[in-house]
Amino acid sequence: MNHGRNPNPPRAARSRCARELAGLIALALLLASVTPPPAGAAKAEKGKAKSAPAAKAKPAAAPKHTGLETLEKQVRSFTIANGLQFILVERHDAPVFSFATVVNAGAANDQIGTTGIAHMMEHMSFKGTEIVGTKDYVGEAPLLADEEKGWDALIAERRKGVKADSVRLAALDVSFKKAQEQAREKVVSNGYTTVIEQNGGRGVNAFTSNDATVYFYSLPSNRFELWALMEGGRMAHPVFREFYKERDVVYEERRLRYESSPTGRLFLEFVTAAFQAHP
């Protein structure tokens, strides 16, 4: 019996040796491919990089001039004798001046029972004065008074609720509408806006926010005196002609923006919940 090494190893052993040999050959090839270059070659590359000329930096772009750099210095503020404050910026690029009259009152100033009065005042400011928007103010004034009396009588009867006299209500309604028609005969419709536009005015408009009511438009510079007359007149001496007609317009705007709009109704509910009281 031979107790020495078998000169012919099994097939599995031979296969394992072949795989180990192939792995060693592959490792040797991999190491050969990543062998670092000689030290001299690295120094040569470094010297070449130092000798290359540096790229020229691009000059910084010149700052753009918009004409607004000195705007703050151009602003002037002053108050005239009647307490009206002006904030003025003169720019003579075009013979036009634009303005915004800012009234320090808005929807937040409406009191309980007078919701919408700030918005109503915005609309009424376009109805004119004793000299603008009327054919004959001397004849118009008593008709406006009759219109007010007719409304007072009608609303007083309505407030009786179920005790109101239906026949009297119908008669008062007819009387009130007749007073409206008579007063309207003296009105120059859109008279205020027409005067401005006939003199080159553009962008005649206004808006009411929570904290302010703002009126604005533009006119040629040579109509500045006209602007002062028109703006001062409607602020100091307005005539509330076509009041009830304009009230219905304000009602409709509210219905359109809020009551008939899902997002508008959501906004009102949100504001009511968020601001349960205000100064």
Automatic annotation (TrEMBL):
<keyword id="KW-0732">Signal</keyword>
<feature type="region of interest" description="Disordered">
    <location>
        <begin position="40"/>
        <end position="67"/>
    </location>
</feature>
<dbReference type="InterPro" id="IPR050626">
    <property type="entry name" value="Peptidase_M16"/>
</dbReference>
<dbReference type="InterPro" id="IPR011765">
    <property type="entry name" value="Pept_M16_N"/>
</dbReference>
<feature type="domain" description="Peptidase M16 N-terminal">
    <location>
        <begin position="89"/>
        <end position="130"/>
    </location>
</feature>
<keyword id="KW-0378">Hydrolase</keyword>
<dbReference type="InterPro" id="IPR011249">
    <property type="entry name" value="Metalloenz_LuxS/M16"/>
</dbReference>
<keyword id="KW-0862">Zinc</keyword>
<comment type="similarity">
    <text>Belongs to the peptidase M16 family.</text>
</comment>
<dbReference type="GO" id="GO:0006508">
    <property type="term" value="P:proteolysis"/>
</dbReference>
<dbReference type="GO" id="GO:0046872">
    <property type="term" value="F:metal ion binding"/>
</dbReference>
<keyword id="KW-0479">Metal-binding</keyword>
<feature type="compositionally biased region" description="Low complexity">
    <location>
        <begin position="50"/>
        <end position="64"/>
    </location>
</feature>
<dbReference type="GO" id="GO:0004222">
    <property type="term" value="F:metalloendopeptidase activity"/>
</dbReference>
<dbReference type="InterPro" id="IPR001431">
    <property type="entry name" value="Pept_M16_Zn_BS"/>
</dbReference>
<protein>
    <submittedName>
        <fullName>Insulinase family protein</fullName>
    </submittedName>
</protein>
<feature type="signal peptide">
    <location>
        <begin position="1"/>
        <end position="41"/>
    </location>
</feature>
<keyword id="KW-0482">Metalloprotease</keyword>
<keyword id="KW-0645">Protease</keyword>
<dbReference type="Pfam" id="PF00675">
    <property type="entry name" value="Peptidase_M16"/>
</dbReference>
